[in-house]
Amino acid sequence: MKLIVGNWKMNQNQEQVRAFFSALKSGPRQQEAWLAPQALHIGLALSLAPHDIKIGAQNSSEQDSGAFTGENSPATLKDLGASFVLVGHSERRQIFHETNVTCAAKTKRALSHNLAVIYCVGETLTEREAGQTLSVVKQQLRQGLSDLGGWHPGQLIVAYEPVWAIGTGKVATPAQAQEVHAAIRTELKEMYSAAGQAVRLLYGGSVKPDNVKELMGQTDIDGALVGGASLKATDFLALCQ
Ligand code: PEP
Question: Among 79, 128, 186, 190, whose Cα sits 20 to 30 Å from the Cα of 233?
Answer without folding.
Answer: 79
